[in-house]
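== Polypeptide entry ==
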Amino acid sequence: MEKPSNVGVAALAEQLYYESLDGRFAVQRAAVPQDLTGERMTPSVTGQVAFEHYHRSYVASATGVLGVVRYGFVWQEGCFEVVLPEKTMSQHFLLSAAARSLSPAKIMRMSDTGVENVFLRLRWPESDGRPVCPHCGCAICYACRRSSGQSRWRCKACHHDFSVTSGTLFAWHKLPLRTYLLAIAGFCNEVKGKSMLAFGRELDVQYKTAFVLAHKLREAMASSVKALRIGGEERTAEIDGAWFGGHVRPENLAADRIDRRLAGNQSGKRRVVVTMRERGGRTLAQVFPAEADAVAAIRLRIAKGTTVHADESPAWNTLHASFAMQRINHQQGYSIDGACTNGAESYFSRLRRGELGHHHHIAGPYLVRYAQEAAWREDLRRVSNGAQVHGVAGLAMRCPPSVDFCGYWQRAHAA
């Protein structure tokens, strides 16, 4: 493919093409820092595509590895992408070869040193994978590999020993690094969710191990949108809510059954997942006791000047004082005069199918994690699985040890 004429790149190190949320894109990385000008595709309400002119400073990564990430992602490593529109593919992205950039077979063919180098570059991209002490930040560290073959380094300044996973989500790990890379790849390969029984069988670990590892990966996914505000001037966001959990099992005899729609006959465990989704942007998901309780969070997470689309629920009436609202009555249609919440409904469709097909029951304190996982999968549904693995692994290496799931089962036994 010919190089775009509107981008003045002196030397292109690598090229990778993939489909993003708005169609086929070309992602190009310069070998040296460049000052680039280009266009970004933004979808309009009518489904047409508009071009947004932008001017950003592009800085090549010190690692020299192409990181396929979209604007605003945590694992962007201070680099910007040159995103140019390309011709839209006729087939679905998941059926194309561009969606299959990494397979378990490729991971199994990697040497132990190669797997270790992957985590080293993701952990310390600024130093091209050279270890930096996580305790004092000293860059002078020397190897002191254990007799068992496990990699360790010792800081010259504070004399602390550390590994590539020290101070990360994988701290105090017991499985080989290859197993964690396989786990991330298997978790990202699913498009709706991952069954923990199947996850444990693939990795040859207990259900408990698979359960905790999957929740740590969900925590890494959620960190990409932590404290993120969506929307802005001339931007559009959609909000909607869906109820999960609190199932009341009906009695065997019809004469003994109760009306489960009445508040007095419910379990009180039912919660609503409220999604805030920017068109052409990210998806935020939070859990509340009722839709009306989400109003304050919506005002906090959606920037002023955003046009907000919502359904006919009376819980959103108070938002008219803060945003330009467009309401859609679903009893009359799915989209009327440009007002619709189809993007939010698409997210709930993915979450609901993950609940019915993989998890079978998501509720309680874990509901928000499953909701955030579905939001991440929905946003990156047109990104190759190799780029997803690179992103999740990079986020996991930047997150501190999990407060909720570090020693999860040990705390249960202690209680």
Notes: Residues 201 and 207 are 8 Å apart (CA to CA). The longest strand covers residues 34-43.
